[in-house]
Amino acid sequence: MPAHPVKSLLPRSLFGRAVAILLVPIVLLQLVVGLVFFQRHYQRVTEQMSEIAARELRQAIGVAERAGAPAEAAARLAALSGPLDLPLTLHPGEILEPGIDRPPFDATGRTLAETLQSAIPRPMTIDLRSDPGTALIAIQTAPGVIETAVPRSRLTVTNPHQLLVLMIAAALLLSAIAVVFLRNQVRPIRRLAEAADAFGKGRALPFRPGGAEEVRRAGAAFLAMRGRIERQIEQRTQMLTGVSHDLRTPLTRMKLTLALMEETEETRDLARDAAQMERMLGEFLAFARGDPAEPTTPVDPFALAAGIVEDARRTGTRIELVTETDTPEAPLVELRAGAVTRAVDNLVGNAARHGRRVRLTVRLLPRTLVISVEDDGPGIPAQDRMRAMQPFTRLEEARNQDEGGHVGLGLSIAMDVARAHGGGLELGDSADLGGLRAILRLPR
């Protein structure tokens, strides 16, 4: 379902959304206040000042038209220039072509021109572009054209942009204060997210709740949850350690008894059963324990894979190693080396049991470590792959398991290790070998 257009414009982070929630109303309020103030103050003042100038110009027009002769009109206008403080020049006999020339964004200039045209219903030209500080006005009269230059300060409010500058400065100051405050409020949430993400990857970062009351409560709840999980893991490990001792003791006595007995077909069968039970017990304990206390350290995944391949070849496994890297950085990844080695060992052993050829591929990406194990065995049907990763699941119909001693925990152990690192395990088909392909993805 496509996202709503408005939602697509929202920032993704909490900090960005909080800033937007704060700044958008401020900007809208400033625009509305500025527009209302401009219309009710600047335009009204401009109209009043322009009407005063129009009365002075009407007085000059009346003086010129009552004079009669053009020379007399010019003399009277020159005498009137002083009292009106306006330069008045008469061009006898000229015919004026009306027009207004002003910059496109001169709002007060438009009000000025409209007021003069309404107050003096005669052909006139108004030039506001040639000199930004002066209005050049020419008016058609009976003796000729009267020209004058009126300072804009007598017609419109000077520096109308000052309000805009003050509004922008105030908005920027308030926004800067708000951004600093919001950043301080969001920082504890970001630290909480980092601590939770690290804990999901098996690392316990030091974290102390801070910030607002709600954020502190969330942080305290996270610490309590983390403590409960760690205690549960510790209790389970201690319990399973005791179970290990309890089960291995009678198993060891059984093996010693068999070693002292005369070797027969029955004793050999019992010895194989005891070895099988020991392997099954070790596999179960490895799954249940999970090495929760093992710290993460910088590990070279290529060297780790080479060691696994060397050990597998010593047991007769036909395995090849493929390494790839898409980053120029040093090939070091924060891993629990023992847990990852055990997970890959399980995948390699699982592949070797069900196929004749095994391929281990290690690919280092900028943000992910990808480890895949392929074989040429019968594979696992797509509908059974999720079930195959559950503990104690043995898909006899999909994978020929002639050899005993395995309780269906190899994929489960690999899945647990991947999740402890914040990654996952995927099962698919091997395009080259034709069997199963297990892909272990671990974030860097």
Describe this structure in words.
The protein has 444 residues and is α+β, with helices and mostly antiparallel strands. Among the domains are: 9-158, Beta-Lactamase (2-Layer Sandwich), CATH 3.30.450; 294-443, Heat Shock Protein 90, CATH 3.30.565. Helices cover 56% and strands 16% of the residues. It has helices at 5-9, 14-67, 70-84, 107-119, 161-200, 213-260, 265-289, 301-314, 337-354, 385-388, 410-420; strands spanning 88-92, 99-101, 124-127, 134-140, 144-151, 297-299, 319-325, 333-335, 358-364, 368-375, 424-429, 436-443. The strands form three sheets. It has a five-stranded mixed sheet with strand order 1-5-4-3-2. A five-stranded mixed sheet has the order 7-9-10-12-11. α4 links the parallel β2 and β3. α2 (14-67) crosses α3 (70-84), α5 (161-200) packs parallel to α6 (213-260) and α6 (213-260) runs antiparallel to α7. It is rod-shaped, with a radius of gyration of 44 Å. Mean pLDDT is 81; it is low at 397-405.
